[in-house]
Each structure stands twice: as structure tokens, then as C-alpha cells.
């Protein structure tokens, strides 16, 4: 793919993104001028130590936080400087989030937990379809307490994708899981990326997970330190850690 064709398929364009947190009299520089593009349908893995800025970057790109300085565009929409109402609409219409902890409501079934997202979406898929996509079509009426940790994470993924997001942001999605269960969750994320052509970003400390990505983006001290393009994406089942 030529540089020009990649440019045409750009989903996010970040330029000089800076984030400074004020902690009393101390300034914490979480991002120090990040330049980055994410492309339509690609799967990227963001690696970096704690404090490298990767979660801050993900949160800003996903509209959960705003940069202190710099520019961020999503397709034709300027996100830098956008107000809370515009960011809420952006998140609701375009972005799905998966976090390390599942944040399911214990008193609701899997179907009902997913329906929370579909109730506010423009063109959602039925909760049953979303659960089927993550391999839980037969567990729709189970409560979180009746599901394993990996199954609960898959319900969380179903909830994230049920509104058919163009972007899926995953922050340490396997962090609370053993390796076998984590690989099953990564298989689900890869499946969604392939089936829905959803631009997917995975944050992780685990270097091995980078092998399943189109590109590996490394962050260090609030900056992008390296971008690696993989010749091929390794299937999650082939990963070992």
C-alpha cells in the first residue's frame, strides 16, 4: 500500500498531542508531543511501561479525555477543542471500549448488559447477535456470577461492539486473565477486527501480543519511541507467554 493510499484511509491523525496533569504544585507530563496516525480496519498494539502515556493516548483518541495541546482529527471531525457534548456524541456513535475490568452489572443477564449499549446506539445489532459474535450465543440469559472471567470479558466485548463502532479501544483486555483465557479473548478481538473492519487498538504490557498486530507502536516517557510494521499477523492461538 502506498503512503498516499494509506493517507486516504486514515481514521485518526494526531499531531503534537500533549497532556499535562496538575497535581498540586507538580506538573505531570503524560504526553509530550505525539504524532500518530491510525488507519481504517487495522489492528495496532500499543506497548510501553506504566507511565509511558499509552492509556492517556487511548483515552484522548477515544474521546474520554482531552489533550492539553496539539491537534487530533477523527476522519473529518476535529476532536481537539471539542466540547463535552460533541465528545459524548463521538463516543456514542463511533467508539467501543474494552477495559481490564469488565464493569458488568451483576443483576443483569449477558443479554441485558449488552442491551445497555444498544439502547443508545443509532444502528445497533441485536444483543443476541453481538453475543454470538463473541461465542456466547448460548449464554445470553446467564448472569455475570454464572460466567468465567474470560466469558465476562467477552460479554464486555459484545457490549462494546453491539453499536457497530468504527473504532475499538482495548486497554489491557487480558490483564486480569490467565494466558489460555487471554488468548481466547484476543481471538475474539481479532475476529471482530476482521468481520466488522473495526479499527482496533490494544494497549498491553505484554510484548508477545504485538505479534498479532498490523503495527506495534511503542511509547516511552510520553512519546512514540518506535513503530514496527509486522510482515504478517500471528494468530492468537500461536502466541505463547
Treating each run of at least 4 consecutive H or I residues as one helix, how many helices?
Answer: 7
CATH topology: Rossmann fold
Number of domain units: 1
Q: What is the number of strand segments?
A: 10
Q: Could you list the spans in which at least 5 consecutive residues all have pLDDT below 50?
A: 1-7
What is the mean predicted local confidence, pLDDT?
A: 91
What is the alpha-carbon Rg in Å?
18 Å
Share of residues in helices = 25-40%
Which overall shape is indicated by the principal axes computed on the Cα atoms? globular
Ends apart, CA distance between termini: 32 Å
The CATH architecture assignment turns out to be: 3-Layer(aba) Sandwich
Which range does the strand content fall in? 25-35%
* Helix vs. strand class: alpha/beta
Q: What's the structural blueprint in terms of helices and strands?
A:
Blueprint: H1 3-8, E1 10-23, E2 26-39, E3 43-47, H2 54-61, E4 69-74, E5 77-78, H3 84-94, E6 95-98, H4 110-118, H5 127-133, H6 149-161, E7 167-171, H7 179-196, E8 199-204, E9 215-220, E10 223-229
Parallel strand pairs: 3-8, 3-9, 6-7, 7-8
Antiparallel strand pairs: 1-2, 1-4, 4-5, 9-10
Amino acid at each position: 500500500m502506498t503512503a498516499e493510499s494509506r493517507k486516504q484511509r486514515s481514521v485518526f491523525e494526531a499531531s503534537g498531542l500533549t497532556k499535562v496533569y496538575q497535581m498540586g504544585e507538580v506538573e505531570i507530563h503524560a504526553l509530550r508531543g505525539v504524532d500518530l496516525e491510525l488507519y481504517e480496519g487495522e489492528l495496532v498494539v500499543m506497548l510501553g511501561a506504566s507511565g509511558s502515556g499509552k492509556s492517556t493516548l487511548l483515552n484522548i483518541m477515544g474521546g474520554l479525555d482531552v489533550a492539553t495541546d496539539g491537534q487530533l482529527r477523527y476522519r473529518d471531525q476535529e476532536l481537539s477543542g471539542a466540547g463535552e457534548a460533541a465528545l459524548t456524541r463521538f463516543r456514542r456513535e463511533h467508539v467501543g471500549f474494552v477495559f481490564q475490568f469488565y464493569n458488568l452489572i451483576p443483576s443483569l443477564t449477558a443479554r441485558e448488559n449488552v442491551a445497555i449499549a444498544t439502547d443508545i446506539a443509532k444502528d445497533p445489532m441485536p444483543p443476541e447477535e453481538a453475543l454470538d459474535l463473541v461465542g456466547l450465543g448460548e449464554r445470553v440469559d446467564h448472569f455475570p456470577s454464572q460466567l468465567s472471567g474470560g466469558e465476562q470479558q467477552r460479554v464486555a466485548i459484545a457490549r462494546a461492539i453491539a453499536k457497530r463502532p468504527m473504532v475499538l479501544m482495548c486497554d489491557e483486555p487480558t490483564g486480569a486473565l490467565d494466558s489460555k483465557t487471554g488468548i481466547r479473548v484476543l481471538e475474539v478481538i481479532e475476529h471482530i477486527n476482521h468481520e466488522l473492519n473495526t479499527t482496533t487498538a490494544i494497549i498491553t504490557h505484554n510484548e508477545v501480543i504485538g505479534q498479532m498486530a498490523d503495527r506495534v507502536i511503542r511509547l516511552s516517557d510520553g512519546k512514540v519511541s518506535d513503530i514496527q510494521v509486522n510482515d504478517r499477523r500471528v494468530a492468537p492461538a500461536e502466541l505463547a507467554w
